[in-house]
UniProtKB/TrEMBL annotation:
The keyword Lyase does not apply. It comes from the Eukaryota. One of its GO terms (cellular component) is membrane. It is found in: Membrane. This is Sugar phosphate transporter domain-containing protein. Residues 14-279 form the Sugar phosphate transporter domain. PANTHER family: SOLUTE CARRIER FAMILY 35. The chain crosses the membrane at residues 12-32, 44-66, 87-104, 116-136, 143-159, 165-189, 201-220, 240-260, 295-314. Keywords: Membrane, Transmembrane, Transmembrane helix. It is a multi-pass membrane protein.
Length: 335
């Protein structure tokens, strides 16, 4: 009995530490990126270049860990190379979605405030339901659809209140919607690609960052950032590169902490944790930037957060019921 209690205590402590690390790293990453994109001390109007540099940092770390097999005694990192032709054929389509996802998310963060950032990207759940039906033919329960309806209403209310408060950014909101769409597609297609990398999430992250380094170059050209970079005069600043490296380390850390949280809990628990983290992030951001919001603005956030959490909980209950339902003998695998 004591041994079981000790094991449970150890497990809960591990989960608490991992979830806490995810919260801290995720919130810090958002604030660091917002500083890089909008701070007067950086003053570089090239968000895709900053994101590209973060991909280089993440790729360099992943490459080093892959060569060494990870950090001895702490965690292992799967070996692999992104330059295999067979791997490229399988992973590059997903890498395109990954590149567009992080590009639009960061462009959204540049144009909107941190308090509105979560609401601006809150339609991912709605797109998940739509694409699960279109691409996978997976039906969604009526109560989950009702949650999606409330999320859309909360999103609309949040946009309306941002507009009334004078802080609404149309282009930032559009980037947020596109980012939600790409995140949804990325999540769905990740399930199809993971078997090609032996279900190794870290290895997939390594490959995605490798291909993103190349894919971001035409995006930077289209966004007109090459001219901005040629005219930028702060490249000699040590402080500038220090901030850039910190942003890159945060980018790698959030990827690792996300994977670790999913591993020690579950994908749905990760969604619930992310929703609760977003609530804390919104409160911290309003205090940090000394922004005053009205009651309807807070109501929109509450609707989106509560509906997202309920959706994740309903899906969790449905999965539990499905896992306990016996499979008919004729449908069971012979293996």
């Amino acid at each position: 009995m004591k041994s079981q209690q000790s094991e449970l205590c150890s497990l809960y402590t591990k989960i608490f530490v991992v979830v806490s690390c995810y919260w801290v790293v995720s919130i810090v990453t958002v604030f660091v990126n917002k500083t890089l994109f909008s701070s007067q001390t950086v003053a570089l109007e090239a968000p895709l270049f900053i994101t590209w540099f973060q991909c280089i940092i993440s790729f360099s770390i992943c490459f080093t860990l892959s060569q060494n097999g990870g950090v001895p005694g702490i965690f292992s990192f799967p070996k692999g190379t992104p330059w295999s032709m067979d791997v490229m054929k399988k992973v590059i389509p997903l890498a395109i979605m990954y590149t567009l996802m992080i590009a639009t998310n960061n462009l959204c963060l540049k144009h909107v405030g941190v308090p509105f950032y979560y609401v601006g990207r809150s339609l991912t759940t709605v797109f998940n339901v739509v694409f699960s039906w279109i691409l996978l033919r997976q039906a969604t329960s009526s109560r989950c659809i009702l949650c999606c309806a409330f999320i859309i209403f909360g999103f609309y209310l949040g946009v309306d209140q941002e507009n009334l408060l004078g802080s609404f950014s149309l282009i930032g909101t559009i980037y947020g919607v596109v980012g939600s769409l790409m995140l949804s597609l990325y999540s769905i297609f990740t399930k199809k690609v993971l078997p090609y990398v032996n279900q190794e999430v870290l290895l997939l992250s390594y490959y995605n960052n490798a291909y993103s380094i190349i894919l971001f170059i035409p995006l930077m050209l289209i966004n007109g950032e090459m001219t901005v970079l040629m005219n930028y005069t702060n490249f000699q600043s040590t402080y500038f590169w220090f901030q850039m490296v910190i942003g890159g380390l945060c980018g790698f850390a959030i990827g690792y902490c996300t994977s670790l949280q999913i591993k020690v809990t579950s994908p749905l628990t990760h969604n619930i944790s992310g929703t609760a983290k977003a609530c804390a992030q919104t409160v911290i951001a309003t205090q940090w930037y000394n922004e005053s919001k009205n009651a309807l603005w807070w109501t929109s956030n509450l609707i989106v957060l509560a509906s997202s959490a309920l959706y994740a909980r309903f899906k969790q209950l449905e999965m539990e019921v499905k896992s306990k339902t016996p499979v008919p003998e004729e449908k069971q695998s012979l293996v």
